[in-house]
């Protein structure tokens, strides 16, 4: 494979960033304002894309509470920057589990 | 496909989060402290995984400056939280380009 082809193919990290943007817009474009997630769109995104996390939340009002936390400017809509802060929080929590898991594996 | 299989398959968003963690640890484990990126590991990660972005940086000291900005606690190492803030910044910049692109497409 030539250098040109390698450069044209997105890396794993670039693909991950592209996924964040694509998933956000897939749900944000469903109704009303297309550049932001309404409460309903956020719920749908979380039910479909973060079902593992959502199932671990025993509180039925979890999505509403998350919406309230994410919507820092209080306009009832979650924009991309606000959405990314949710993904970051979850990734950091996952990474801490991963580190603990690796430490445990190392001790065995 | 049964509900069970659907639940077991990670969503696009979950795969993206997994990629962030995997890519970070692939480079962080190369030398020295395995849970963090040294300057050399960060440079290698950016050259391989963010080559498109890095090529757009005309400043040869770009990686050093990014390292300085990311390393908020000043220990010469970039941990996962610091790394994620780089990915977030780039994703937000990409998303703004995406929004502008979509607006342009809509006007045509």
Automatic annotation (TrEMBL), chains A, B:
<dbReference type="InterPro" id="IPR013787">
    <property type="entry name" value="S100_Ca-bd_sub"/>
</dbReference>
<dbReference type="Pfam" id="PF00036">
    <property type="entry name" value="EF-hand_1"/>
</dbReference>
<keyword id="KW-0677">Repeat</keyword>
<dbReference type="InterPro" id="IPR002048">
    <property type="entry name" value="EF_hand_dom"/>
</dbReference>
<protein>
    <recommendedName>
        <fullName>Protein S100</fullName>
    </recommendedName>
</protein>
<keyword id="KW-0479">Metal-binding</keyword>
<dbReference type="GO" id="GO:0005737">
    <property type="term" value="C:cytoplasm"/>
</dbReference>
<dbReference type="GO" id="GO:0005615">
    <property type="term" value="C:extracellular space"/>
</dbReference>
<dbReference type="GO" id="GO:0005509">
    <property type="term" value="F:calcium ion binding"/>
</dbReference>
<dbReference type="Pfam" id="PF01023">
    <property type="entry name" value="S_100"/>
</dbReference>
<dbReference type="InterPro" id="IPR011992">
    <property type="entry name" value="EF-hand-dom_pair"/>
</dbReference>
<keyword id="KW-0106">Calcium</keyword>
<dbReference type="GO" id="GO:0048306">
    <property type="term" value="F:calcium-dependent protein binding"/>
</dbReference>
<dbReference type="GO" id="GO:0005634">
    <property type="term" value="C:nucleus"/>
</dbReference>
<feature type="domain" description="EF-hand">
    <location>
        <begin position="58"/>
        <end position="93"/>
    </location>
</feature>
<dbReference type="InterPro" id="IPR018247">
    <property type="entry name" value="EF_Hand_1_Ca_BS"/>
</dbReference>
<dbReference type="InterPro" id="IPR001751">
    <property type="entry name" value="S100/CaBP7/8-like_CS"/>
</dbReference>
């Amino acid at each position: 494979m030539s250098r040109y082809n390698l450069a044209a193919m997105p890396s794993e990290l670039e693909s991950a960033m592209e996924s964040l943007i694509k998933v956000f817009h897939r749900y944000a474009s469903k109704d009303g304002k297309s550049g932001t997630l309404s409460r309903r769109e956020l719920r749908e995104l979380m039910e479909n894309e973060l079902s593992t996390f959502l199932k671990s939340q025993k509180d039925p009002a979890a999505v509403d509470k998350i919406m309230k936390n994410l919507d820092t400017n209080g306009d009832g809509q979650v924009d991309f920057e606000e959405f990314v802060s949710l993904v970051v929080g979850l990734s950091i929590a996952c990474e801490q589990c991963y580190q603990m898991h690796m430490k445990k594996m190392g001790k065995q």
